[in-house]
Specification:
Elements: H1 7-29, H2 36-64, H3 78-111, H4 118-136, H5 141-148
Helix pairs in contact: 1-3, 1-4, 2-3, 2-4, 3-4
Length: about 150
Amino acid sequence: MQNSPPFFLLLLVVAGILGLASVVAGFRLRPSAPSRAITWVALLPALAMLGLFYSLAVHMHQSLGGWPTSIGERGFASSLITHAGIATGYFSILLLVSLFAWPVALLLCAVVRRWRRGIFYLGVYALSCLVCFGAMLLAPSQFLNWWWD
């Protein structure tokens, strides 16, 4: 059992596959003139996550004079603790929505004919979340070690 991939990784792979499938289906079913406003709304959660994540990294590096040397928030300023709480809380909500609510919304859009245009926007959302997750992995390894622990 030790060689099996973690459950979290399997969830991410399944979500990624569903996201890419919805992007492909969405582009085939997209409205003739997709709404820019709705497209931006679909992009906004991932863009906000990237902003929170990298602003936390900058805030942490400046506040601590380098990267954290231990796991946890010992020695952090109260503003840094608040920033970290907001970023990790938002990431948790975004992850839960992406893993549990998004597939239900995709299924509803696929089943209800009038809602099929929504698949395009759900695909934009999924693709932006995947890009966001990939961009988060580009952060310095010391910060990522603190973030994931």
